Amino acid sequence: MKSYLLLVFIALSNFCIATIITVKKDGTGNFETIQEAIDYSVDGDTVLVYPGTYFENIQLYPKGITLASLYLITQDELYIHSTIIDGNQNGSCVRIIQGTNEEMVLCGFTIRNGSGFVYNMGGGIYIDSADPIIKNCRVVNNSCWYGGGIYLTNTTSTFLSGNLIAYNYASFGGGGVLLGESSDLIFDSINRNNIYLNHANIGCDIIKGIYSPAINVYVDTFTVINPDFHFAASNDIMGFPVNDIYFDIKNAKIEPVNADIYVSPDGDDNNSGLTPDDPLKTIWYAYKKIYPDSINPKTINLLSGVYSNSSNGELFPINARSYVSLIGDDSENTILDAEFASYHLNSSNLTRNFSIINLSFINGSDPQIFKTFGSVSLNYNSNILFENIFFNNCTGIVISSLHSDSIHLHNLYLSNNYGAGIRIGNGFLPKKYFYMENCIVEKTFPGFYTPLLEGGSGISIGSSLYGCYFEGKIINTQINNCRYMFDPIWGNGFSSALTVGNKATVDLVNATIGNNVVVDDYAGAAVGVNEGAVLNIYNSIIYRDSLFELTLGNSTGSSYTATANICYSDLEGGEQAVQNWYNQHIVNWLDGNIDSDPGWDTTAAIPYALPWNSPCVDAGVPMYEPGMDFPYIKIENGIIVLYKIDGDTLHIPSTDLAGNPRIINGRIDMGAYEFQDTGTMIKEAFLKKLRESKIDVFPNPFSTHTFINFEMQSKAWVTVNIFNVNGNLVKKLIDTELPEGKFSLTWEGNDDWSENVHSGTYYAELLINGEKAGSAKIIKK
Which residues of the chain form CATH 2.60.40.1220? Predict the structure, then answer.
């Protein structure tokens, strides 16, 4: 006891006139809660907290006190682990607010389970206009929107010494530390901090604001030895990355792997990830472990299964990296479920050269009050490909791409989303480009928070009005059943299917636009062109929409003249139905246009396919003949080439939206689908979602037997196989011709030799006439 009192005396000798206030949960101290002790304290006091878990969200007032665990007087690190401030997901664990001076010391705590203060900032520690000393604390497992571990704003010399900042999460910037406004942060170069394995959409471990000075980060252990913008981010006022975070790192938590990586929901992040048999478990960890290489680009291969926070600990949004692609087994069975807690993917800081392929993105939502993003946010990107992706049940803008160049969208299927579908824009020089092919955007409904962002429009393309131009192509694309809801704040004149604005130039080729609705908006339309934009329409159908099919300009007036060039297209109401506000804009109604019902059967398997007697069959741009004026189509080296009205060219895919030959009977049809008189099967992967032959397994998981159920829409040859995770055939349940109807097969968990299989994961695959029509993961307990 004497030695203990001596330690106390030595440790507190600098506080000779200070009061020591004790906090003990058992009631034997001065107070039982930390906040009571802080409220009682005055400048110079020390609040000494004894071990225990304190479920509090404490606030430090403008006073200079020391708040510490018994680590302060013993230097025993066990007290750091055993003295816990637990925010209980009820706000920041610790708030250090305006006026707290540099004499304020926080020492020797574990700070966990905080959820942030003021717009969810600072999960663990929130610092505003104060300059405390924080030393020897464990800031772990906190989560919020900004600054998962520590958030600083308007600070000048906050000092960090000997802390661990790890496993924190921010759905937006700065998983570990975020410096906002003009904050400065000083890292102890002797008693170094450790910062690793935090996650955020940008700056996973640390991010600093545009007005913060350059910082020197001295750490013992960081996530990697050479952090790029994935781990540490800083931007200028235009959003471009700035290299003003300087590192001195002794050790790394992860040794990056210069190879492709495999991930499975059934994997383990302690695995190597180098083979399908030894996969990692989470995508967020794989992005940290992989080594980006511009000479030898890498791929993260996702094995089939559901990736979500509740099922396998997945963290969204994914923070994309240059030269690292994300490719799933197939879009039907590789599912990223954000569970409405986040959107799916963010890519900023001039990220470039990557692909996202063969995935389903479901239940994405921006957690902020204003639901800006629903699934994907791309900023300042280039050379990006999204292919064979299914987006469903997301709230906000499903795909938002700003200031990005060479964005390619192929075989996308957006259905039943709440907000806006695809928004692509350019606000800065130079001119940028996008390409969209074989996409369906359907059933996009108004959101509930910000009508301008979530009104329900299908596709929106635009630039800024400051000399920045954007151009692109939308080919073989269907936009249907989108619903825009008028909002009095933003006024009239919005478009439910397609908007082209602000000096953008778009070629709309072989598009099908129908049954889109603008509600309570007297100036609304399916397609709108405004503010200097140019829309060139070829071989397209715009029909059965309300109110207008096509408008130029706006009922409130426009600053720049918009232009629409329309040829060989079917537009309901014809030229007279085009709304040209104040006759200020240019409508060039060219050859080959018609005003005739295309004859869609919206109850059919492909609702917008053309029937044999449709006026749109063989009514597109004609094939070239000598002496013919533009436009025309030529086959050059097996490629379908459209010569536009100005003689410029673009390539048309060799198949239509359903995967059938694009030109039948010697001439192209209008719309996204070519009439087929040969009964060609649908082959495009994303259109599997439209098939009515489904496969369902119940119970799942199972112990003794399970039922595999499916429905046939017509007579066909049916095969149902069971495979193990290595792709080896375990059992063939059926291989025969079946009539139309519902069927249920029983699998008793055995193989073709009637031997019981081991517990684990298996896959049931349904083949119809030899083509895969559905599959399901089965777990045998």
Answer: 692-780
